[in-house]
Amino acid sequence: MTQAQHSPTPSHDSPLPPARGAALSRRHLLTSGALGTAAASGGLLLSTGAAEARSGGGGGRQGRLPRKVDVVVVGAGISGLVATRDLLRQGLDVLCVEARDRVGGRVLNHHLRSGGVIEAGGAFVGPTQDHILALAKELKVRTFLEYNEGNSVYISSLTGRQEYSGTVPPDPTILPDAAILLTRLDSMAAEIDVSAPWSHPSALEWDAMSLGEFIRRNALNSSGVGNLIKSWTQPGFGADPDELSLLFVLWYVACSGNETTVGTFSRNSDTANGAQESRLIGGSQLIPLRLARKLGDAVALDAAVQRVEQKDGRVVVRTSRGTVRAKRVVVACPPPMVLDIDWFPRLPVRRTQLLRHMDMGQLMKCDAVYETPFWREDGLNGFGINDAGAARAVFDNSPASGDPGVLLAFVGGSTWRKFGPLSRKERRAAVLEGFAAMFGEKALKPIEYTEQDWTKERWTGGGPTAFHAPGTLTDFGPAIRQVFGRVHWAGTETSTYWSGYMDGAVRAGRRAALEVGERL
Ligand SMILES: Cc1cc2nc3c(=O)[nH]c(=O)nc-3n(C[C@H](O)[C@H](O)[C@H](O)COP(=O)(O)OP(=O)(O)OC[C@H]3O[C@@H](n4cnc5c(N)ncnc54)[C@H](O)[C@@H]3O)c2cc1C
C-alpha cells in the first residue's frame, strides 16, 4: 500500500460551505484565562496558526539526501524533531528522516469546514508537563483552558443520567469503591521509581496482574467501578483494564508528574489541574510544524527508513529517498514501527521481545461540529462519561474561540473493537446518539462530523501510546533505553515522565540527544 493510501486526513462531512473564519469570543477569553495571550494578538494567532498549518506537511529538504551526516534521526514526530533541534544546537550535522509527507506523527490538526482547527491526535496539556509547555512557549504557540465551567454528565445503565462536578461521578453503587481504589492506586504509584518500575519489591506480583484483576480483587461492585475506570483507560491507553498490567498502570500514574511533583491519578485524569487542563491555540500540530520550519533542510519527508546497518564503526541508514551514513542514529518512532525496519545486526533479543510486547492501543477520535457549543448554555461543560455505547468518554473539543462548538468522543479499547469495524454511517449514528443522551436532541444534528482512526495509520499503528500487557514490563522493560551499538532510542514511550504524552516525547528527544552528544 502506498503512503498516499494511508493519508492521515480524517474523513468528514458537512452540508455547509467551507471557511466561516474563527471569531474570538470575548466571553470565552475572559472565562478561559486566554486573555493576554490570544487577545494580545487580537485573535491573529488563531488565523495565523490555521494558515500556517494548512501550508503543508512541514517543508523540509528537497532533492537528494546527503551521503553522510553525524546523526540520523528516524521519525519527525515531536520527539524526533526535538532530538534533531538539540543535536543541531550541539553543532552536529543532523538529518531527520520521516516516512510520512508531513511532520507531527501522532499530533495532527484537522481544519473544520465550518472554520477553526481541532486536533485529530494529541491535544491536551496540563500542569507538570513542563517540557511541552516550554517548547510551545519557545515556538509562540499559546495555550487556552479547556472549557470546564458547569457540570459534567454521567450515564449509568443502572442509575440513569446524572449531572455532577468533580472527578468521580456521585454514583452510590460505585463511589465507595472508586474512592478506595483511586487512593490505593495513588499510594502504590507513589512508591514506583519512574525510571525503573521493574525494581519495586512487588513488581513481579503487580506485573503478573491486570488492572482489571486488581479491581475485581479489591472492589465490592467490581463491574460498576471497572466500567467507570474503562472510561479512563479507553482514551488513555486505547485498551481495557483487563489488557493492562497493573504495574504498567501504576508506573503511568507515577509518570503523571515531574521531578518535584509526585504523579497522581487525578493529575492524569482531570481537566482542572490535570492532563486535560489546556489545549493549544491553532491546534497542537503547530508545534511540530513550527519546529520543523526552523530546522529547514535537516528534515526530510517521504523518507521511510527501511534498513539500519551497523558496520565498520558507522551506521548505514537506507530510506525510500536514498541511503545516508552516520556516526549515530536516534530512533524516534512508535515501538511496533521499529520492528518493521530491517536491522543488521539483528536487534538484541530482549529489545525485540520488548517491542513485540508493546502493542499500540486501539483508538479513534470522533468529532461532531455544531453552530454553537449549545451545552454550555445548559450549564454543562461538555465532559461526559457513559458506561455503554460508542461515546463513553466525551469532551468539549471546540476551538479556543468556542466557535463552532465541537463534541469529541474517544472510541477506544473494546469500544473501538465494537464500533470501529462498523460502517462510518453506523458509527456516526451511534456516536451522535451517545452525545444526545448526554446533551439533548440538538446533538443529533451536527453541521459536520469527522473521525480519525489511528489504528489505520501505517506509520503509527494505533494510539495514543504503546502499552504493556501483564508480565512484560518486568521481563523486558529494562531494555527500554538501552543503547544498541550506535543506535539510541527516543519517542514518548521511552520517557520517564509523561510517557505516552507530548511532554514525554519532548523529554525523550532531549535525553536521546544528550546521550548521543556525550558519545560524539
Ligand atoms: C488519538 C490520540 C490522542 C492523544 N491525546 C493526547 C493528549 O491529549 N495529550 C498528549 O500529550 N498526548 C496525547 N496523545 C499522545 C501523543 O500524541 C504522543 O505521545 C506523541 O505525539 C508522540 O510523539 P513521538 O514523537 O514520540 O511519536 P510519533 O508522534 O508517533 O512520531 C513518530 C514519527 O516516526 C515516523 N516513522 C515511523 N516509522 C518510520 C520509519 N520507518 N521511517 C521514518 N519515519 C518513521 C512516523 O511517521 C511519525 O511521524 C494522543 C495520541 C493520539 C493518537
TrEMBL record:
Cofactor(s) the protein needs: FAD
Keywords recorded for this protein, A-Z: Oxidoreductase
Leader sequence segment: none
Residues that coordinate or bind FAD: S79, E98, A99, V305, E493
Residue ranges, compositional bias (Polar residues): 1-12
Matching Gene3D superfamilies: 3.90.660.10, FAD/NAD(P)-binding domain, Guanine Nucleotide Dissociation Inhibitor, domain 1
Class of the enzyme per the UniProt entry, highest EC level: oxidoreductase
EC number: 1.4.3.4
Membrane keyword on record: no
Domain named Amine oxidase: residues: 78-515
Region of interest (Disordered), residue spans: 1-21
PANTHER family with a match to the protein in the record: AMINE OXIDASE (PTHR43563), AMINE OXIDASE [FLAVIN-CONTAINING] B (PTHR43563:SF1)
Family listed: Belongs to the flavin monoamine oxidase family.
Protein name in UniProt: Monoamine oxidase
